[in-house]
Structures are given as C-alpha cells and as structure tokens.
Amino acid sequence: MREVGQRREWLPRFSHFSRIWILTPAALLSACAVSPPQFQIDTTPQWQARLAELEAVARWTLNGRVSIYDGKQAWHANLIWQQDGSAFDVRFNGPLASGAVHLFGNETETTLQLPDQVMHVAPTPEMLLQREIGLWLPVGHLQYWLLSRPDPAYPLTGEWDQAGQLARMTQDGWEIEYREYTTATNPVLPRKIEITHSQLRVKIVIDQWRVG
User: Mind listing the pLDDT tens digit for each residue in 12-63?
Assistant: First the structure.
C-alpha cells in the first residue's frame, strides 16, 4: 500500500480544456445563430489510457475535509473514505450531524451510525442520509467521482485539461469540477473537487491518498 500526503494552496482554475464537439450539418449552417452544442465524452487515446488506469484502482483510502451548503445551512467535517470494490466505509468527524457519523455498506445495503450509536439501515446511502440527517449526497456516484472517474452507469458530458485529465463533467444532473490534482499519486488523483446540484454545493479537499 502506498501512502502519500499533499499540502498545497489552491491553484488557478484550468484555463485550457479539450472539448469534443458534435455538429450536425444543420447545426453547421446555423452556427452563427445558435448557442454552441454540448461537448461529449473524450474518445482520444490519452483519455482512454487514463480511464483504464482509474478503473484498475479498486481499493483506496482518502483523508480530507468536506463542506456542504444547501442554500440555507452549511456543514463542515473531516472525511475518511475507504473503498474496496463496491464496499465503502465513510466517516464524517466534526459538526456534521453534531458529531461523528459512520456510513458503511455495499451495493445492496447501507448502515448509518449516528452519534447516539443507534444503527439505521436502508437499501441505499442516499436514502439513509436523506431520511436520518436530511442531507442528500450522491454517495453511489462519489465512489467514482472522487477518483475523477465517470460513473459508468450514466451518460457523461465533460471537459478535459491539456494533460488528458477531467477538468469538469456533468452526470445525472450533477456538475463536478476538478479544481486541483496531485501528482504525488500513481495514477494522478484529485486534490480539490467541487460538486453542485441546484442549490446544493459540496466542496472536498483531499489531504492524503492511499492506493492499493
């Protein structure tokens, strides 16, 4: 198992992206009169090679911080996320839900332990967090997005930087922006991520990755 740490200030936003544009003949004729079409998934060998690297990362742990704002309230917590295949173990330590929150499970069942030590069970982590805390987090997607890997079950639109890494993408109504990567890991993994859906905004800062 390899352990790496990273402490760097925010880097400027990406300024150069590669985009894949799909234009029909009609769109070409009326390009001056309409807004640009949506960009689609990158099929270049560079991205396909990186995607293969990310798909090979089945077991990992991250340590970081998360802040969540829903348009009315804000929560902040330390975050420890362990992933092993489809099994996940997520710990929020801090003001979120007024103490430590432990969420763990797999693709068929999820358990939530709140500060009162009572166990709550539901088929999905999203359902459980919404029911018990009143917070909607796309946990099922995040096991992919945290690695800068699209969820393979959903269509993707995205932008890529000059290194062939995702700069931002849209999946299932969520906007995901990769504001910084760390080169201390192999493969290169995100350092700072911002996720938005309607009024919900989630910021994640990853201080340490362990891969393998």
Answer: 333 333 443 333 333 333 344 333 334 455 678 899 999 999 999 999 999 9
Query: Residue 47, SS3?
Result: helix
79, two tokens: 């975050």
Residues in CB range of 71: below 8 A, 6 or more apart: 198, 199, 200
Angstrom distance (rounded) from CA 208 to CA 5: 4
Distances (CA, A) of 108 to 54, 127, 150: 23, 12, 21
Strands 101-105 and 87-93, sheet pairing: antiparallel
Whole-number Å distance between alpha carbons of 135 and 101: 12
Any bridge partners for residue 176, and if so which? 169, 195
In sequence order, what are the beta bridge partners of 15?
A: none
User: Hey, CA dihedral for 41, 47, 49, 51, is it positive or negative?
Assistant: negative
Helix boundaries (H) for the chain: 25-29, 45-55, 125-132, 139-145
